[in-house]
Amino acid sequence: MHSEAPFNAEPPLDRLRASFVTAAQDFYVRSHGDIPKLDAATHRLRVCGRVDRPLDLSMADLQALAPQRTLGAVLQCAGNRRADLQPVKPTSGDPWAAGAIGYAHWTGVALHEVLRAAGAAASAHVAFDGADQVEMAGRRFRYGVSIGMPRALQDDVLLAWAMNGETLRPEHGHPLRVVVPFYAGVRSPKWLTTITVQDHPSDNHMQQQDYKLLPASVTEATVDWQAGLTINEMPLNAAICTPQAQARLAPGATTIRGYAIAGRRAVARVDVSADGGGSWVQAALRHDPETPGAWTFWATTLDLPQGEHELVARAWDEAGQTQPACAGDVWNFKGYLCAAWHRVPVSVR
Amino acid sequence: MHSEAPFNAEPPLDRLRASFVTAAQDFYVRSHGDIPKLDAATHRLRVCGRVDRPLDLSMADLQALAPQRTLGAVLQCAGNRRADLQPVKPTSGDPWAAGAIGYAHWTGVALHEVLRAAGAAASAHVAFDGADQVEMAGRRFRYGVSIGMPRALQDDVLLAWAMNGETLRPEHGHPLRVVVPFYAGVRSPKWLTTITVQDHPSDNHMQQQDYKLLPASVTEATVDWQAGLTINEMPLNAAICTPQAQARLAPGATTIRGYAIAGRRAVARVDVSADGGGSWVQAALRHDPETPGAWTFWATTLDLPQGEHELVARAWDEAGQTQPACAGDVWNFKGYLCAAWHRVPVSVR
User: Fold this and answer.
1) Cβ of B282 and A216 within 8 Å?
2) Structure ipTM over 0.90, yes or no
3) Single pTM value for the model
4) Would you call A235 an interface residue with chain B, using a CB distance cutoff of 8 Å?
C-alpha cells in the first residue's frame, strides 16, 4: 500500500504473476481522492455536449442500450515501475514497483454505441468525469480526462460495470468505469458520471497539467505543460516477478518469471540475464493470441552459482523494438513510463 | 556504392536530408542479383495459387483493373545503419550507413483490388516473385518473399509502376514492384512477375533463411532460422544527416539535421546531444500529418565550442517509447535493425 487516503496499492509481484487473469483483490488501485460511495440503483450517466440527443441514463437504461460485451484488457498506471527511476534522481508521485498493472476481463457496452445513441457530432474529443473529488494544486475538483474521438469510436473502448464476471468493487469504479485498452490507466476513469462530446481535450487538471511525458531537463519549476506528450499508449516493458529483489536463493536451478507488454504489438521475445545484461537467454512465452489486449507471461530456468547476481529482463516486440538499458535514459521529473531493463539483485548462498 | 554487382548503393546523408521527398536518383538501391532488363510493353504479371480466376496481365490490363492510387511511403532496408553495429563485432552484409532509406510517392493499384479480381481464397499468405536471379548459399534462384493476408488486404499495399510521378527506373523495379509501407524493404519486391495466394509463407530462401532477427548469442554456425523473428515492421529510429561523421566544424552555431521514423506511430520528440548523451535539447520536427507513411525531418542549432564532440540523436514515439543507447544492445550476426542512438563524432577547430 502506497497511501491510505487516497487509496493507492499494488500486489506483491509473485502474487501478480500467479494468475494470468488478475483477481479484483490483487488488481492495483490508483485513486486521486476518496473512493466515492455510489449506489448502482440510483446512479446516473449523463451524455452531453455536442450531441443531438442528450442522455440521462440509469444503469438499467445503459445495459438495455446496446449488447453486453466482455473483453480482456490490461490496465497499467503511467507510473508503473516509478521506483526504478528514483535511484537516478527523486521524482514526484508514489514509488510504484512493477505491480501497478493487471489483466482482467471487463464487461460493459461499447462507448461508440452510447455515442451513437446520443447522436454525437463528429467532434474531436470525448471527455469523462468521475464522481471522485481530487485535491491537487491547492484546488478541489472532480476527476476528468478525455480521449480523442477516433479512439473513442473503436470497438474495444468499454463502459464497464463488471470485472472478471463480478460487479465492480468500489475501489475499481463501482458502478461504472471506462476501460480504454492500451492507454495508460489515467484515461480509464472510475465512478463515471458524465460523458461530454466536445471540440477540445478536457480542460481538467488531470488532462492538462499531469500525465504528460517531459524531457529529463524539465523540472516542476520550469515545466511547460503544453510542451509535454500526453500519455496515452505506453511503451514496451517487461518485469521480473519472481524471484523478488533482494531474495536469498539456494544455488542451482532457479525459475525466473515475469510479464511483458508491447501495447498493440505482440511481444516477440523476452531475454533474461543473470549477469546484469552481459549474456542473455530467451524465455518461454505464454500469449493469448485471441486477445490483443492481454499481456505476455514468460519464464525461464537459470542455473545460479553462489554469489551476488543482477537478474535482468528485457522484451522485444514484433517490430524488432527493444527497451533502453538504463533508468537514467528515461528519467523524467514526474516519474512516468519507466520502461528501462528491469534489474533485480539477488543473493545466492 | 557498396557493390556494383549486385548493385547496392546509398546517398550521402546530406543529400538525403536535402529534400523531404527523396529523388529517384538519390534513393538507396538494394539488389540481390543483376538488375533485370524488362520491357513494360511485354511484361506480364501472373496471379495464381488459391484463386478462383488465375490472371495473366499486361501492364495495360493491370492499369485498367482498378483505380490508380498514389501514396507517400518510406522504404527502408532491414540493414540500414548496419555500419553502426560493426564496431561491436563484425556482421555479415554490406556496411550500410544511415542512407538505406528514402521517402517517395508511389503510384499503382492497391494489391487487394488485384486479389479481389482474381477471387483470392481466404488464405493466410501472399507470395511475390521477382524476375531477379539471386545467387546465394551455393544456389541460383528467383527472388521471392511473402506477406500475411491481413497486411496484403490493407489499402496501402500497392503494385506500383511509378515513383515521384515518373516511370520506375530499372534499379527501382521497372516496370512493376510491390510497395508495403512500414515493412522492411525486403517485403517490397522489385521486377514483380508473380503473385501466389497460398496457405504458407514463401518457401524462398529470402523468406525462410534471411531477414530474420536473432539473439546476439546466435552465429552463422548455430542459427536456427525457424526461431528467428521474421522482419516486417521496423523499430523506432533516428539519424543525424548533417554534419557528417568526422566533420571539421568552425566554433559557434551549428545546425544539426536528420530524420526519424516510428513505423505506424508518430514521432513525438527528437532529442539531440553534443556531449554523448549527457544532456539533450529537443529538435524542431517537420511532419506530414496527412501521410502516416512519411518520415519526420528534424533540426536544431547548437553552439559548439572548440574540441571533440559526440553528437547524438534519439527519438521518442507517441507511446513514450525511446531507443536503446548502445549498438551492443541490439547487435545480431546478420546486422539487422540497428536502432541504437545515432552517434556522430565531430571536431570543432
Assistant:
1) no
2) yes
3) 0.97
4) yes
